[in-house]
Design a protein that fits this description.
Number of domains: 1
GO molecular function: transmembrane transporter activity
Main location: membrane
Radius of gyration: 22 Å
InterPro entries: Pur-cyt_permease (IPR001248), Pur-cyt_permease_Fcy2/21/22 (IPR026030)
CATH topology: Hydantoin permease
Helix content: over 70%
Largest sheet: none
Strand content: under 5%
Family: Belongs to the purine-cytosine permease (2.A.39) family.
Number of helices: 19
Mean pLDDT: 92
Distance between the termini: 46 Å
Subcellular location: Membrane
CATH architecture: Orthogonal Bundle
């Protein structure tokens, strides 16, 4: 919905941008997932072999903020959906609390139960989406008229797509590590790529269609102004009566799997933040993050789409720089050899790189990234002409800088 309502893009333009940039931005997620089974390391553990034992805390903190933000987004959508079907009797705040706590309980069950839950939870979610589309589908052709977009608008919206997809690369190995080392890399890549790409593109396009129709459908517009995404879903399903309300509840609860899986990765990242945190039981981190998500989500719900644009637009920058470092470390310096990651070194700071090359390359790239940012709260001098090209520059510039800086680091430390 952000394309039409936030950027003034028509359905055709949104669909083409979503398709092209999703094809491109899902690649690093699939690629890094293939390293999990072969290295036996979670994503941020593997990152220690480029960012070092201590400086890896920087991408860990950024990843924690990113994952927490995704939990906030899903909690807001779920909470607003529950509120919409009660016509305000259940406030969005209470709905957010319900969704966040239920997701935490699912997270408590551990990876095996979570994995089984995810295997089947998508089925009722898909059915509910089909029902919602079928019920309100007759209005989707009633699209609002938008002007022909400028290149800068297209690139700015593409940065939003990248900001949603690329950060998944920072946790791809967290789940792939459970696969056997002999697992086919081609299959791991294909399953990961397809698992992210196939649901993302149709749902984003559907969201764009709904957003484009909203201004022309009074009940949808009223729902959007009342409780944002949840209000629109409730308005779409209103003709179905009580069954429609049940479908909205089903859609709200379908977010539990996303939030719980994200919380699972958050608990793993917490243990890497500081060495002593590895001794803290992970369920305590789940409680802490839930306590953070609830108040932040309640505050974010007051201006959801503005906060959504601000958050997703920014996270693509650091994630692109991170991907550039990790990919070049593996493909160039480790010769794409997963056995080059010595398991005896992962928790020994004196045997790992200092991380100065990785962090230095990432930070220096922002000399070009910042002027190329186009956000609600800031537009750089380059972005005023080109649109947001920050994530592209973060990847390219970080990669170019990392190679010479890493060679210098190896020469000084006399080890890879």
């Amino acid at each position: 919905m952000t394309g039409p309502l936030g950027y003034g893009l028509g359905l055709k333009d949104c669909s083409l941008i979503i398709l092209f940039f999703s094809i491109l931005c899902t690649i690093p997620v699939g690629y890094l997932a293939t390293l999990g089974p072969k290295t036996g390391m979670r994503q941020m553990i593997q990152a220690r072999f480029s960012f070092g034992y201590y400086l890896v805390s920087v991408p860990v903190i950024l990843n924690l903020a990113t994952l927490t933000g995704f939990c906030v987004i899903d909690s807001v959508i779920g909470g607003q959906s529950l509120s919409a079907i009660t016509h305000g009797h259940l406030t969005p705040d209470v709905g957010i609390v319900v969704i966040a706590i239920l997701a935490m309980l699912v997270c408590f069950c551990g990876f095996k139960i979570l994995h089984r839950y995810e295997r089947f939870a998508w089925i009722p979610a898909l059915i509910a989406i089909v029902i919602a589309t079928g019920t309100g589908g007759k209005h989707l052709s009633n699209q609002a008229a938008f002007e022909t977009p400028e290149a800068s608008t297209i690139l700015s919206f593409s940065a939003l797509i990248a900001g949603f997809l690329i950060p998944w690369a920072a946790l791809a190995g967290d789940f792939a590590v459970y696969m056997v080392p002999e697992a086919s890399s081609t299959k791991v890549f294909a399953y990961t790529y397809g698992g992210l790409f196939l649901p993302t593109v149709p749902l984003m396009v559907l969201g764009a269609a709904i957003g484009g129709a909203c201004p022309n459908i009074p009940s949808w517009q009223a729902g959007y102004e009342s409780t944002s995404v949840g209000g629109v879903l409730a308005a779409m399903l209103e003709p179905a009566g009580g069954f429609g309300k049940f479908v909205v509840v089903l859609l709200a609860f379908s977010l539990l799997g996303n939030i719980a899986a994200t919380m699972y990765s958050i608990t793993l990242n917490f243990q890497l933040l500081l060495p002593w945190m590895v001794r803290v039981p992970r369920f305590l981190f789940a409680i802490v993050i839930t306590a953070i998500v609830i108040p932040v989500a309640i505050r974010a719900a007051t201006s959801f789409f503005d906060n959504l644009e601000n958050f997703i637009g920014v996270i693509g920058y650091w994630a692109s720089a991170f991907v550039a470092v990790v990919v070049i470390e593996h493909a160039w310096f480790r010769k794409s050899d997963c056995s080059a990651y010595d398991h005896e070194k992962w928790d020994k700071s004196n045997m790992l790189p200092s991380g100065l090359a990785a962090l230095g390359a990432s930070l220096l790239s922002f000399a070009l990234v910042v002027p190329s940012m186009a956000q609600v709260w800031y537009t750089g001098p380059i972005a005023k002409t080109t649109g947001d090209i920050g994530f592209e520059l973060a990847f390219v510039v970080t990669g170019l800088l990392y190679v010479p800086l890493r060679y210098l680091e190896i020469r000084i430390q006399k080890r890879v």
